[in-house]
Amino acid sequence: MNSTNQFDIIIVGGGPIGLACALEAQKAGLQYCILEKGCLTNSLYNYPINMTFFSTSEKLEIGGIPFVSNNIKPTRPEALEYYRRVATSHKLNIHLQEEVTAIAAHNSKYQVVSNKQTYTATFVVIATGFYDIPVMMNIPGEDLSKVVHYYKDPHFYAMQKVLVVGANNSAVDAALETWRKGAEVTMVIRHEGIGKRVKYWVKPDIENRIKEGSITAYTNSSLVAIREKEVDIQTPNGLITIENDYVIAMTGYQPHCDFLQQVGVQLSQDEVLQPTYNPETMETNLPNIYLAGVVCGGMNTHVWFIENSREHAILIMQSIKKKLFP
Asked: Residue 143 CB: number of other CB atoms within 10 A?
């Protein structure tokens, strides 16, 4: 560790893309440090316990390090094990449970302030992902303890009346898994049906469960109020009230746009809140501050994934090396 807290590069975020950036910095012989506010690959850790990735294992690899899986589509535990082994075997310099609270220009460099200490770096890479801030429904009762925006394990919901909001992968997984553990499951879907991006091996399963009546689905509908033992749903046929024990609101997540704005990264003026960056170098409107990973998409969180954003690490390091070694 650099005892003076001065580095060539500070990487904000210890997810797969943050780790990929660290691997590239290490290859280049640069002094770097990853600051991660939670555990290693915090977002992946908070994924559902039984989650299976859409991607194959080779598409989740970083730094050219092989990811060997027992399955065609790797599982969450396999991914956690892979990224942990990458971090430990390469002795990556990562500070866990340390949240970055501010980044500011200071004497031609940047001061990066965390909840524990202050660092100085010439370059900063922001790879903070999007999984930490749920998209809220902003309806009465959303703050009740029976409502969750993160789904982990189905057993908890056995023999309960469960409402799942949403129709994409996370919602479909929650609906199917809780139903298989004995929950009475109802889905509220804003659009016509199950989302087009749902994993191809899961989509027929959920559609058949709905068709046979095992899972009730209200399409073109919205949840409008939540109470301790019931919920109100606005449907095309009018407002209905059903009994309910728990609400699993899989309404999506968003990047920490407020943090980007606080740092000074320009965002588009529309609802996408697209950060400004050069796609050839990943450098933002702020000199020597880069973006990597899904944070680049703003509210379009389905644009960037591990497999297509791991290249960001290479682009960033090429740009940094050109600046350091012209």
From this structure: 9
Which of 269, 268, 272, 270 is closest to 255 using CA atoms? 272
Contacts of 140 (CB under 8 A, 6+ apart): 224, 225, 226
8 A C-beta contact, residue 253 and residue 132: yes
Mean pLDDT by groups of 10 residues along the chain of 326 residues? 80 97 97 97 92 91 93 93 97 98 95 97 96 92 97 96 96 97 98 93 97 98 98 98 98 92 95 95 98 94 90 97 92
Q: In 10 A of CB 27, how many CB atoms?
A: 14
Q: 30 in helix, strand or coil?
A: coil
pLDDT of residue 130: 87
Rg (Cα) of the chain, in Å, rounded?
A: 21
Closest CA to 263 of 107, 105, 114: 105
| CA–CA gap between residue 268 and residue 292 (Å, rounded) | 17
Domains located in the chain, CATH noted: 6-133+253-324 (3.50.50.60), 136-249 (3.50.50.60)
Phi, psi dihedral angles at 211 (to 5 degrees): -60, -40
Amino acid identity, residue 82?
A: Y
